[in-house]
Amino acid sequence: METSLNLPFSSITDIELSWLFENDCNNDFLHNDILKYYLDKNKLLLSELDFQYVTESQFNSVLGSYKNKIELSVFHLNIRSLNSKHRVLCQFLELLHLCFDIIILSEIWSNNIDYYRNILPGYTFYYDLPLLSNVGGVGIFVSNSLCHNIVDTYKMNFVNVENLWVEVLKQNKKYIIGGIYRHPNSNVKEFTSELDCVLSNVNRRKTPCVLAGDFNIGLSKIEVNVDTLNYVDMVLTNNFTPTVLMPTRITSKSCTLIDHVLLCRRKTNGGHQNFKW
Predict the structure, then answer these.
(1) What is the mean pLDDT of residues 205-225?
(2) Reported pTM
(3) All structural domains of the chain with their residue ranges
(4) Deepest of 63, 67, 115, 181, by most Cβ within 10 A of its Cβ?
(5) CB-based burial label for 245 (10 Å; 0-12, 13-18, 19+)
């Protein structure tokens, strides 16, 4: 039986894709509420973000002009069972002309998870599994070329949230990397409050940070959902930028932006330092 990774358009046909752009989901692509909210908050912030859909070959083509400028490379994927899709993951990564420094996987599930420590040679695998079910969990593969260690300082002990934090050192620069999975049945308001404490703690350290995962909070609904609005405001207040601007899960019936990559760059006297990725 063949399986596929849950990339945005992987489950729909070309005809269904055309329909999405021509009908109801057109608003999610071209008039995304989160884009308008960013623009109102900070035009400079919006101009710095560069997010687009690309194929593997397009990624490799674009990579050529950036490869020597990348400060830290981070890849996130909601894999929905590492047990069933580990081979497809390896095949997909083989197609890309970049060995990522960090690979964050959400919804790894707990089935046979310890067997997959060595599927990516040259990486060390860490994970945090759900306590109440087999579904959920988060894992991080860290390149062995980086000095790194697990840090519990930022760990959220919150029901129905798995999270993992790693401190890495690359070319004498320190970074904080977080991976997270929030189960959809947990309280968004309480989660936002807990995450606020963590992000403010990270921000005080003035160390660049990347936090990625499946948050199950639809950013495209920012204008109609007060909990989503409060979540985004909290993220921005703590000097983090939600960098994913378009839907990350697309079917013939829906488009959702629930997988987030949050970036906090360290400050310098002249403002933010460039953080190529």
Answers:
(1) 93
(2) 0.85
(3) 14-272
(4) 181
(5) middle
